[in-house]
Design a protein that fits this description.
With 223 residues, the protein is an alpha/beta fold. The chain is built from eight helices and eight strands, in the order αβαββαββααββαααβ.
């Protein structure tokens, strides 16, 4: 395990695992296939993560995936996952609201049905076999996941959206489609001012997505 921890330290710079909120390990290994129990234990030291990115590391399954209950954003793009063990995701990441699994080997939308117990808001699934063969896959995803608002950077009405700016727009979506009462009152209170938008503080998202694609670990902010 020490070798694995050292490799992470070398990749992202010196840090204490418990101080890290975002961990980007894209391409740190090209043919990992699956994590070992020792690697699982090493990753679970990052107990305060809300964003874990493991793009393009050769994953074939989710065996020995780290159990991090507070994780909200998981990126597994460009691996070799077929979805057979996706039922583990809600168990180890019950608070997940953004999932990226583009560029994998998912043959059927049925492989995703086990994820509908999550309160997912955003899903990226393009470049899988089933998305290439079904032009209406987005509509089917919206039917399968009532909470999802964005699929492959498109809203339900087909409007393209940059997900890095989504945090600034999510409150307006909530006003129109999801919530009643308080958010509308906040909007009325801000009509006569040129100040900050209170809704941005009421967003369900607990972190700033403008930095979601930044490399390296983010240390916890002391409050």
């Amino acid at each position: 395990m020490e070798r694995f921890e050292k490799k992470i330290q070398e990749l992202v710079g010196p840090h204490k695992p418990e101080d890290v909120e975002e961990l980007v390990l894209d391409e740190f290994c090209k043919d990992l296939k699956s994590f070992t129990p020792e690697q699982k234990e090493g990753l679970e030291l990052y107990s305060n993560l809300y964003h874990l990115s493991l793009n393009n590391i050769g994953l074939e399954n989710l065996s020995n995936f780290p159990n991090i209950k507070g994780l909200m954003y998981l990126s597994l793009n460009n691996n070799k996952l077929n979805g057979d063990d996706f039922s583990n995701i809600p168990k180890i990441y019950p608070n997940l609201y953004k999932l990226k699994i583009s560029g994998n080997n998912i043959e059927s939308i049925d492989k995703l049905a086990c994820l509908n117990e999550l309160q997912l808001k955003k899903l990226e699934i393009k470049d899988n076999p089933f998305t290439k063969n079904d032009k209406e896959y987005r509509e089917k995803i919206y039917d399968l996941f009532p909470t999802v608002e964005i699929v492959d950077k498109k809203l339900k009405n087909g409007q393209e959206i940059d997900t890095t700016d989504y945090g600034n727009q999510s409150s307006s979506l909530d006003d129109e489609e999801c919530e009643e009462g308080d958010d509308n009152d906040d909007n009325e209170d801000s009509d006569d001012s040129d100040g900050n938008d209170d809704d941005s503080n009421d967003s369900e998202e607990e972190y700033n997505e403008e930095n979601e694609d930044d490399e390296g670990p983010k240390k916890k902010k002391k409050k």
